[in-house]
Automatic annotation (TrEMBL), chain A:
Subcellular location: Cell membrane
Alphabetical list of Pfam families matching this protein: BPD_transp_1
Membrane topology reported for the UniProt record: Multi-pass membrane protein
Transmembrane segments: 35-54, 95-119, 211-234, 261-279
UniProt keyword terms in alphabetical order: Cell membrane, Membrane, Transmembrane, Transmembrane helix, Transport
Single biological process term from Gene Ontology: transmembrane transport
SUPFAM superfamilies per UniProt: MetI-like
Gene Ontology, cellular component aspect: plasma membrane
Family: Belongs to the binding-protein-dependent transport system permease family.
The name this protein goes by in its record: Peptide/nickel transport system permease protein
Main location class: membrane
UniProtKB/TrEMBL annotation, chain B:
Domain ABC transmembrane type-1 residue range list: 95-300
Record's protein name: Peptide/nickel transport system permease protein
Organism (species): Rhodovulum kholense
Example GO BP: transmembrane transport
Gene3D superfamilies per the UniProt record, alphabetical: MetI-like
Membrane spanning residue stretches: 9-27, 99-122, 134-157, 177-197, 237-261, 281-307
Subcellular location: Cell membrane
Family, as annotated: Belongs to the binding-protein-dependent transport system permease family.
Gene Ontology cellular component list: plasma membrane
UniProt topology in membrane: Multi-pass membrane protein
Keyword annotations from UniProtKB, A to Z: Cell membrane, Membrane, Transmembrane, Transmembrane helix, Transport
PROSITE patterns: ABC_TM1
One Pfam short name: BPD_transp_1_N
Superkingdom to which the source organism belongs: Bacteria
Amino acid sequence: MAKASPSRQSAFHVLTGLFSLPAGARLGIGPTIAAAILLGIVAASVCAPLYVPYDPLAMDSLSRLRPPSDAHLLGTDQYGRDIFSRVMTGGRVSLLIGVGAALVSVGLGLAIGLVAGFFRAADGLIMRIMDSLMAIPAILLAIALVALNGPSLGSVIIAITIPEVPRVVRLVRSVVLTAREEPYVEAAIALGSSMPKILIQHLMPNTLAPLIVQGTYICASAILIEAILSFLGAGVSTEIPTWGNIMAEGRSYFQIKPGMIFWPGLLLSLCILAINLLGDTARDLLDPRLKKREG
Amino acid sequence: MFGYILKRVLATIPVMVIVAIFVFLLLRLTPGDPAAILAGDAATPAQLERIRDRLGLNDPLHVQFVTWAGQILRGDLGTSLISNTSVSGMIADRLGPTLNLAVMTIVISVLLAVPMGVIAAWRHRTWVDFLVMSFSVLGFSVPVFVIGYILIQIFAIELRWVPVQGYKPPADGIGPFLARAILPALTLATIYVALIARMTRASMLEVLGEDYIRTARAKGVRENVVLFRHALRNAAVPILTIIGTGFALLISGVVVTESVFNIPGIGRLTVDAILARDYPVIQAMILLTAGIYVVVNLAVDISYSLFDPRIRY
């Protein structure tokens, strides 16, 4: 696989090489179904404005808390808004938060991790800070951050990102610590390559495979945490529907209108399930050693 | 051994110091006037001044830190901005329900998850294994509160076996306590079971391939003794580690579960404080949960040698 000489290949080659199956290996039925479900949900959410029958924000005081009917596929909520339209549109923001949080935490974690792994002087302090951040429960830290910074989309993404960064840093650091002892890195140092060049061209490609796996897990957990933040009242403001705040608004009407929690909950769970399964598959493909361990 | 424990205990000090600095800066470095953030939009200048005065926000940053750290070190967590009572008192009042819930959850989780993981590894690649792994993946994918509402819907609303919400301390009778605590504990246990079962299975799979397991079987040791005495003991360290690191997950879960089931514990206290921007309570809770996390993981580290006598310090 690409591991043989990562420093010689472009990022594109590394990426395509990573996902080429070993000869004779076949993807099981599980990952295929997971990919199909995920693609379906992503497509349905992204295209939601094209097909949903109602404006997800349009209130109608005459038809509140209606049961499912031909006019309203999943019924209406306490403001008379169409639940189906809200759930499908809400998926867009939830997925955006997932992808956004994954990209930001991987980016930040990569930068900090490279520095910690390569510069011994910075390592001790950086890792102590990361240990401390990991000691604070993620949800608690995230709700505190949203409460202080306001319920905007960006602030929610940052609040979800900060608790995830230490895990990425640890991962990148451990990869860099192993890779920096490799002869090609020593050679590059001996040849007088500049520090940024060594970090980016020689060390960074090694982190790509584990980061892709970690990134998918972060994406899944970010969607989950968004839902929890909204549920606790510290999520994106309710003018922007997300799976999380639709469920949060459904709390008080749970006994008469369980669909407000179950439908977004179902889509969200399916989505996270699919992302996690694909993450596991990517991990097995990228690191056969781990597969043996996990069975 | 003693030297090792001392070293580990000392190593927790920098972690807690950094957590404290972080909590201190969290409010002060937030863009905007901290007092205005805490007071909300409709605050009068007098209210703002009161908050500034209360939190010492008028002093220079380093002076604020020294006063603040001094108070924390003396065990003074400050007074609530909302109820004007001492934060440590508020936490003490709410600790009982949360502790009961957490202990029940851990007991249920370990009793369920460890056998599940052992059996899945023992019957590797059979339908039992598949079932355990499916449950484990599912446990990670469904939000805690959705699990809570599904359980309420089934057991409280449809079957009417238990009350929907609420809390009764064990002092009011063990029956009423258990009736109200069982659903929250199961809700909270789901993700923990998923986590521990997965790790137990992975760790057992590794151990079951070892020579001494084959030897034990060859000399006719009963299979359950092989599994639980020979194999599980050797597989224990990663399982213990995950119980420790999973503790952060448990604390997060408590916050959500207490909101779903209306339990007056420290989780609810935290959420209410955050929504009301009661900063002294928020910072106390972050310090407290981080402290608990650090202590639990310290205990886990030290307990390794009990389960695996090969580890000696």
